[in-house]
Each structure stands twice: as C-alpha cells, then as structure tokens.
Amino acid sequence: MATPLENWVEEQAMLTEPKRIWWCDGSEEEAHRIIEIGMNEEKIGNHPIFHKLNQTAYPFGYLHRSHPTDVARTEHLTYVCHSEGTLAGPNNNWMDPGEAKELLTGLTKGCMKGRTMYVLPYMMGHPDSPYAKACVQLTDVSYVAISMRIMTRMGKKVTEKIGKREDFFKGLHSVGEFDPNRRFIMHFPGEHFVWSIGSGYGGNALLGKKCFSLRIASWQGLKEGWLAEHMVIIGIEDPDGNITYLAAAMPSACGKTNLAMLESTLPGYKVWTLGDDIAWLNVGPDGRLWAINPEIGLFGVAPGTSMKTNPNMMRTLKAGKFFPVLFTNAALNLDTNEPWWEGMEGEVPGNLSDWQGNPWENSNGNKAAHPNSRFTVSIEHVSTLSKEFKNPKGVPISAILIGGRRSQLIPLVVEGFNWQHGVFIGASNGSETTAAALHKIGVLRRDPMAMLPFCGYNMGHYFGHWLNMGEKLASPPRIFSVNWFRMDENGEFIWPGFGENIRALKWIVDRVHGRVGARETPVGLVPHLKDLELDGMNLSEERLEKLFEIHPRAWDDEVLGIEKFFEQFGQTMPEMMWGALRTLKANL
Ligand code: SAT
Ligand code: MN
Fold this sequence. Notes:
28% of the residues lie in helices and 23% in strands. The protein is built from 16 helices and 31 strands. The structure holds sulfoacetic acid and manganese (II) ion.
C-alpha cells in the first residue's frame, strides 16, 4: 500500500503534470547527474542553469544566473494563510486558505509539463535531535534541488524516517514561467505546507529555509513553547579556553555571515561557527536556552566579501570538500573563468560579463555582480566549524544580540536591563533596508528581532511569546543591541567592523561572566570605555565617544517611530512593551 508521502507526491504530480518524477537520494553521484542536466538540458532564458567555473581556483564551483526579475525575496507576494487574518497580523499578507489554494491551483495546473519533478526528502536539524523536523520539497528546477542538497540534510534516510507518517512538512515549488505577476509564496501553517510558484530564488524557493524554518516553525514554536529565529549561532573562546555561546539576530545582508565567520583581531580570542542564518531555540532540561542550527549550509551575500573583510569565507569557498559550491548572479571573469563581485580585492578584471551574462561596461556605477548575488556552500567547508555543530542537543546560549544597520543614533553595544527590557529592545529594532528583498534601499524600517519578513503569525503575539519564554528559563540569556554601522558627519563608518567586532563581543562575554560593570543610560547599559579592549586599534577617544553618544532629542523621533510601529498591533501588543516605551520616554 502506498504511504501518505507517496500519495501526496502522486497528487501533486497529477496537478503539475511533470514528464518524470525523480526521487532524490541526496548522494554526491546524483548531484553530479543533476548538475549535468542543469548544464545541458534545463535553461532559464538563453542560459543553462549552471556554468562550470575554473575548478582549480574554485573547486566544485558553478555559476547560476537567475531570471532577471528573480533576484531577491518578494515580500509583497508572500502570504501566510491562517484560518483568520488576525492570526497573521499586520506584519503579514494574509489570504483565506481556501481562496489561496484556488488561486494557486489555477497557476499550478500543468506547470511542470515537459519538466522533471525532483522529490527532495530532507531533515531540518540533526536527525538525532529531539528538535529536528522531517520535510519533503517538490521542485522542477535543478538549481533548487542542488541548493537544497547543500543547505539541508537530504537523503533516503529521511524518507525512511517519514515512513507511514503524515505529519511531515510539505513544500510544493515550481518556477512556473518566472512571471512576477504569477508569483506567490503561500504558507499554510495549519497544514505545515508551503506552496511557492514563479520564483527560483533563495528564500522564495528553498522552502526549508525562511518558509519552513522561520515562518511555519515560528508558528509551531508558539504552539509548542520554543522559538524559531533569524539568528547566527557562534561560540567565543577566551584565552582561558572557555567557550561562551551567543545567538545574534540581524536583518538580511547586515553581516550575519561575516559575524558567523569572524576572525578575531584580539589575541587569544577565537570565534567558532555554528550557523549564519537560523536558530531554533528550546528550553533545555537545565532551564537554559539551547540553540540548534537546522541548516548545514551557508547562503551568504557575495559583494563585499574579500580576503580583507572575511578571509575565512574566501577560504571556505575554495575548500573543495563537499560537492558543489554555487555562485548565483555573480559576475564572470571571462579570462580566468572565475566568479567576481564588487568588493573583491585586487584590480577589477578587464574582461567581465555581468550577472546576466552581458559584456560589462564599467560606467555609471553599473554593478557587474548583482548586489544580492550569493554563494551557497556546505558548512563542512568552514575551518572554524564548532565541534558542537553535530551535537544533536545544540549549544547553551548565554547572550542574544540584536542588530541592524543604523547610520545614526544606536550605540555600538547596549545591554538590556533584564529579559523584558531586552525583548523591548528586540521589538523596537530597526534597520536601513538592503538588496536582500525587493524594496527601496537605505530606508529605515522597524524589523523586530530581524523577523519582520519571517514571523509566521501576528507579531503582537510573538512579543508575548518571547516574554513567556523568559518566564520558562531558569537563567535567561542577557539581551544586547549591537550596531556596527554608525556614521560620522561625513558619512564615514566610525567603527571598522568585521574582525574588530570581537572587541564588542569580548565586552558582552565579560558581562555574561560578571567580569566588568556597565554604565546606566536611558536606553540601557553601556560599557565603561576603559573596559573595552582597544589595543592595536586606531580609534581616537573622541570617535569612540561618538559611538556611544545618546542625543535625547534624536531619540524623541525614535520613540515616536517605535510608538507608531507598536500601535498597529492594537490589542495583541503586550502591555509590558508599552510600559517599557513609557519608561524610555520618561528616562530621556
Ligand atoms: O533569500 S533568503 O531569504 O534565503 C536570504 C535572505 O534574504 O536572508
Ligand atoms: Mn537571512
């Protein structure tokens, strides 16, 4: 008798009408075959799906060019279809589930004609972890099949694990016609189901990532008492060899991958990598908060990545251990057959094709690589991978960092007074927008816990859930806000960032272990400047003070912005958040 999984795949095949169905086993041999198909048979426009790069410089490297209209997440086409709109909240687009299915059935009918349907069984989380989830995604493009193999634990074992069960997470994906007018990313949290059509790009198409591990999982977390968060996980080893684990939430393209791979400029300190994008946080039997990374790959922003900013990443891209490594929408050096992007060191190559494959003209600020061009690479390549990465229990978190891109106002590092105040700091987090989603770049938007585009339910309830989590923890992590991006009057970054960020992290670790005091300000606790380890850094006292300046009048505007943001959640906003805002106002 057919299993529920087989029945489900059969039903989707009746709807989408592929020419064949390919059950993937996740093997390397299979990945080679799929890449071959992507190079020789499947196309987007005139381009093959994959172009083989210089294998000496970039072992296992392939370049993928997406459809020109399909280069970032499309938040306006992303819906969370709860039974009622109030459950989705003002932070989500909502459609009635029945209506959404009718609309998508129309768009999906026969959409895989002439194509292969890849069946991808995968695990989010270590298979032995009590927190892991079994999932299956269907897709009709080799790029997505291969990307999912890099990002998740894919293979036959998952099919066996699912067995006769029905409660696996389901994802149906088709690139359709790549038509932005027929593109939707629809979530059905009640059914653990995501249905995505019309895009092959990142978070729109790799359904294990934002769609499941954040939007659907955050809803599951609300029901089951845990958190699915947009966070890096790292361990910081101090000169005594003790490792303190931190999780850090930052919006897309604000340096999460750089933080996860940070190479310390402080002697004796070392950062161990556990994850660069997603953390599932559970209350452990010891009353501490434990984090696992459900993914096994990195999907990072290429432009700006160089031997200077992130040498660890550059080595990772060339490590050649796990097949393959993908570069999406990078430029191509036609002389060397290597990928290229803005911000790579050295001279700009003379013979480049741009991210769409056209000869590149260096004029009018014309970018060769797309600003949201990405690499996809196994975390096994990372030489700083923590030995705890494979521990099914995860790691205990001592501090949570919340950051954004703020050219003004927000100090380098601030500690919340307590868990509740930390939740307030997270809830009022803002960031200047980037190229990771299609919207105007550089505008301030509120992005609580960097989850605005990823929280699968009403954020008013989400803040309440965070407050409840604090109650369940015997020793809740301390919560900090960080901002590497503050600028001076001339628009220059005051703080050098990258490897030097270890100095802010060291202060955080010192706070966690009670080694240093702090100075109280209206917005939270900031370092006594003498406690910051700045040896070997070229930063004048005056500029250092600028990093921590708090101008009450400028904060008045911030308070107004937070108030306006909170208001939209109406009755669902916990009173405690309003209380924290009133206190902030009074203190200023
Ligand atoms: O496209 S993704 O959502 O996977 C990457 C990002 O925006 O963070
Ligand atoms: Mn992300």
